[in-house]
Amino acid sequence: MIEVLRAGPLTTVQDLGRPGFAHLGVPRAGALDGPALRLANRLVGNAPDAAGLEVTAGGCSLRLRSAGTVALTGASAPLSVDGRPAGFGLPVPVPAGAVVTAGRVVHGVRSYLAVGGGIAVEPVLGSRSTDTLSGLGPAPLRDGDRLPLGEPATPSTVDFVPWQPPPASLALRITLGPRADWFTPEAVAALLGTAYTVSPVSNRVGARLTGAALTRAEAAELPSEGVVLGAVQVPASGQPLIFLADHPTTGGYPVIAVVDDVTPLAQAAPGTTVTFHGSER
């Protein structure tokens, strides 16, 4: 059992999500940085798809009622056990009753805290993930919450995991469409030829960008239609929005392109530069 002493600004339970339910209006949710969660699970001996905690920016503090093992990956942040510094990206033994604290991130946005046995909250549609848009799954953590744990396995014996800070700029590959023809040729050229910046109002639903406004060639209203992970939707402001894990499954603004892989955006802090290029590069 875990007791939440300080939940931080946004800490959620995440596994690898619930894909396959978009036709029912259910987003996939799940860890934004899937490789980081898989690594944390591997370090503590969990299955790759076990649920852990996605800790956004400001850290959190937890008490383990029983002895166990934890690992922190993803965005780099200080980790301590009862106030004593512990290793980042390593399996860390924790005595019964000890307090585990993940501090404020140093590089990146989201850290992943895995605990041996995994977070064993009740699954919804096959996943334990929190969906911040629809409200499916457990609510974001609050001070005083208690979370059950599964049966722990043998933790990894690894003593070193290579880590690199997230880059200050991202080059994302896109496929134009399905509504690229709703925009002027100049808008498409701007999308492919200018740099954008990640906005501070980004969240698990989408990464909002600021930069050259994308002008529409078609003034008509678009009936709501299905949208997918990575869709680059352009609202009335002309500033693009890239849909992430908790995105809605339908939308009424035109989608100019789709990003092939949104994983790098999980650790893109506000101010990160984003450029787009086509599949020919």
TrEMBL record:
GO terms for molecular function: ATP binding; hydrolase activity. Keywords: ATP-binding, Hydrolase, Nucleotide-binding. Pfam families: CT_A_B (PF02626). Coiled coil: none annotated. InterPro entries: CT_A_B, Cyclophilin-like_dom_sf, PxpC. The keyword Plastid does not apply. SMART domains: AHS2. The keyword Transmembrane does not apply. Residues 23-281 form the Carboxyltransferase domain. This is Allophanate hydrolase. It comes from Phytohabitans flavus.
